[in-house]
Structures are given as C-alpha cells and as structure tokens.
Specification:
The protein is built from three helices and ten strands, in the order αββαβββββαβββ. The protein is an alpha+beta fold.
C-alpha cells in the first residue's frame, strides 16, 4: 500500500497563502483598534489638553468660564453629579460658536440643565485637524474643573 501526500510545491503555496491571510487579518484588526488622533499646534491633540487653563464659577444658576490659557476651548461638556448617579451633557446656551479664545469669557444660565446636582465637572472640548478635516476631541476628566454646588 502506497501512501501519497501533497507535493512540496503545493504545500509551500498553501503555507504562503495562509501566512498572507493571517497577516491581513492581524493588520485589519490592529488598524481598527488604532484611531487617528487630530493635531493642534502641530502636537497630538491629547497632549494639548495639558495646556488648557481656565477658571469657572457657579452662583445662583449662572455659570461663568474664563479661558486664562493660550489654548482655545471649542466647547465644554458638563459632567453632572446627582444623588447616586451622573450624566454628561454639552454646555448649551449662548456658548460662543467658535469657542473661547485666549482671554475669552462665557456667562450663562445653566440651572435648568443641572437641576438638583451637588457637583459638576467642566470638561474642555478641543478642535484639531486630521486627514479627514476638523475633529473634536474631549479631554479626559482630569483636565476638567470641578465645582461643588451648595
């Protein structure tokens, strides 16, 4: 009884094809995991969050924000803490359409947005450039400004 196998040429072609397919799968998987970041001032926009510097205050339903840094703040998110829960909202109202540039100020009524909150954190949103055009980036909470509401 003769045992026959596949020829070495066919085995080599199959091995090469399997390696190419596995490599393509890994490449597509990794490409999906890595998100393109925008840039601002020729830096990765995540690093620009370190340069954001603003002050805020809340009194009798009025929120005041002043950009004391050199980085423009495009938008602002509110992380609102209530008894046992929190939610994040965009700061609406009369926030400037182009954001707060250096030295810019905002003042607006937000009591309807925050309700019975006991704490809010203002989180800056920056806008940068990417290969697909303008891109918004929300900084991490550690770059936010915390206000305790009494």
């Amino acid at each position: 009884m003769k045992k026959r196998g596949i020829s070495p040429v066919i085995a080599t072609v199959l091995l090469i094809a399997m390696v190419v397919v596995i490599g393509l799968i890994v490449f597509l998987w990794f490409r999906g995991m890595v998100e393109e970041e925008g840039t601002k001032f020729e830096k990765n926009i995540k690093l620009v969050c370190n340069d954001v510097n603003f002050e805020a205050s809340y009194s009798e339903g009025i929120l005041s924000v002043v950009n004391i840094g050199t980085t423009p703040i495009y938008k602002m998110k509110l992380k609102i803490f209530k008894e046992g829960s929190h939610e994040t909202k965009d700061l609406a109202g009369n926030w400037p359409g182009l954001g707060l540039n250096q030295g810019g100020a905002f003042s607006g009524e937000i009591s309807s947005e925050i309700g019975s909150a006991n704490k809010i954190i203002l989180i800056p949103v920056l806008i940068g450039s990417s290969s697909k055009g303008k891109k918004q980036y929300t900084c991490e909470e550690q770059y936010g400004y915390e206000i305790i509401i009494e």
